[in-house]
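User: I'm curious whether this sequence folds into something compact or stays loose and floppy. Could you predict its structure so I can see for myself?
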Amino acid sequence: MEPDHLEKLRQRLNEIHKWPSVYMFKFVLPNQEEKLTQLKMIFGESAEFRHRHSAQGNYVSITIYEMMLDAESIFERYLAAGKINGIISL
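Assistant: Here's the prediction. I'll summarize afterward.
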């Protein structure tokens, strides 16, 4: 992502949220236990995970709620999650 785009996102997050704040992350990934485990390792123990499987069960959508301290923490989570093969960040 371009630096200008990241800065605009950072500014927008800081306008919308008063930190610390609960932030909602959304991902879609192949329905494989190892990938879900990798994702859970990225988020803190206090993060709340909600799962929803696709109609044929090949994919799972994950919604995660976690208390974040600042916009930079959100970017760190997305960058770490992006390393999981097959994940789609929404």
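Summary: The longest helix spans residues 3-16. The chain has one domain: 3-89.
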